[in-house]
Design a protein that fits this description.
9 helices
């Protein structure tokens, strides 16, 4: 429990929701996923989950997320949404982080098809949110978001790879703490 509280304290210092007002530079797009705990945790957990499958199957998870994220961002770009709709999208991102924590905890009991479907839906929610809050029409923004997303997935993968079997519980604890934190922020946002 102490570890959860420490994690929550560290993450509260950052923004809880998606964070607009980035410019259209590659640099800004590369930083965007790193400046919000909701983005960062989601992508790290997907990277961790990818490691827990044989390589050929594991690569599917980040690939599904990135492709659904990218396509839905492009298709939703330029949609005019108000503050209320953006708030709902941000709440939905929190719900996806909660769902991702549940999927990770029961990972070995679910068929790969259901896991990839869940990852795809999570990618769509993140993509739509980014599509409406950022200028995705700029190729540098899309490239930056995708490169940064892939890098964070890779970090999650390599962190999971570096943890011995004896300490694999740390990965589940991290995921559970992330889900609990997202649920707490979600309840506060209602």
């Amino acid at each position: 429990m102490k570890k959860c509280l420490i994690l929550i304290t560290l993450m509260v210092t950052n923004q809880a929701f998606a964070h607009p007002n980035h410019d259209t530079s590659l640099y800004s797009a590369l930083l965007h996923p790193l400046t919000g705990w909701d983005h960062l945790l989601t992508m790290l957990i997907i990277g961790v989950m990818a490691y827990q499958f044989p390589m050929k199957k594991g690569v599917i998870l980040p690939a599904i997320f990135v492709s659904t994220f990218g396509l839905s961002a492009v298709f939703s770009s330029g949609l005019g949404v108000g503050e209320e709709q953006l708030h709902l999208l941000n709440q939905l991102i929190l719900v996806t982080l909660i769902a991702l924590a549940v999927v990770h905890v029961v990972l070995t009991k679910l068929p790969l098809v259901l896991i990839t479907l869940a990852i795809g839906m999570i990618g769509v929610v993140h993509g739509v949110t980014h599509g409406v809050e950022l200028d995705i029409s700029s190729s540098s923004v899309m490239a930056g978001l995708i490169l940064s997303t892939l890098a964070i997935h890779a970090i999650g993968f390599f962190v999971a790879m570096s943890i011995t079997k004896k300490h694999q519980w740390v990965l589940k604890a991290f995921t559970i703490c992330s889900g609990v934190f997202a649920a707490t922020v979600f309840v506060q946002s209602i």
